[in-house]
Structures are given as structure tokens and as C-alpha cells.
Amino acid sequence: MPADRPTPARRTPAEHGRVAAAAIVLAIAATLAAGAPARLAAATDGLPTATAAPLTVAAGGQGTLQVTITIAKGYSLVAPPAPNTFATPATLILLAGEGLAPLAPVYPDGRKITEEDGFEYRVYEKQVIIMVPVKAALDATPGPHVLKGTLRHQSIHDGLFGKTKVLSLEFTVEVTAARSAAKPATKTATRR
To answer: Is 191 inside a domain boundary?
Structure first.
């Protein structure tokens, strides 16, 4: 390096950390300026719980699993449909297995929220029941069967959207023997 140019100063680890933090702040600011709502700031997550009413299905038949999601006091969950790409609506996914095939869940409407800036979304509060039709295979073995799955959700607390969380689920469905086909009634003619 020529003698008339000063030697560049080396950054200390602390200075590197400050530069990295500044870069993160600038990236967040750029995201917010591009339209991401500020309410996506981290919120402490009050985790919901999930239970299901007992369900008994005959082999070859269909029933409806009623999954109750209980939401912590002071919290709500983003309800479907997603208001934007930054929010995760409550999504229940149950996997087929052991002779059971869950169909698409039926979600109730959430309460509509409109923020001062016009941002609209729907929420579930306190408790919500999601209905899931479940088909049992004709050859399903009678007895208890386990359906496993997840509830993907995003909690809201004091107007702040928390991180997307995934709650693992297991529900037991009782399968009974297939119902036999009823024989049609026949008339017999009698002679007099």
C-alpha cells in the first residue's frame, strides 16, 4: 500500500456486532416500509389446547370429529382465511392412518377485526370448534384408532402477532364392526 494512504482500521468484534444489529434494523425497517404491518412484532404466545369429543364410527362409515380449540385468556388466534402473507391462520391437519381417513376440516367464521389503518383480519377467541369428517375403511379393525396431526396457528395478544407455532395432536376414534346390510322386507302370498 502506498505510504500516502492510511491503513484501514480493523473492526473489533463488538463493532461487528453493532454493524450486524444495524443491518437487521435496516432490513426490518425496509420490510415495514414495503407494507408489512408493524403489528407483526413478537408477542408472547399463550398456547392453545385442543381436545376432541368422543367419536365412534362403523367400519365403512363416516362420522364427524369435533375438535375444540381452547384459547388462553387475553389471546386470540388468526382465523382463516389468511389476511396477508405475514399472518398464519389456524390450520388443523390430521393424517390418515389405521384405517381412518380424515377429510377437509370445516372452520367456523372468526370475529372480524378492522384496525385504524384499514387492515382487516378474523380471529378466534376463547373457544372454537372445528369439524372434521372422518371416514373409516370397510376393512378397518374394530377398536380404538389414533389420528395424529397438528394445529398450526399464530396467536395475537394486545394487537401484536406472535410467531407461528405448531401444536402436535392425537385423538382416539373408536371403530366398530361394519353394519350389515338390512334385508329388504318381502311379502309372501298366501292362498285362501
So the answer is: no
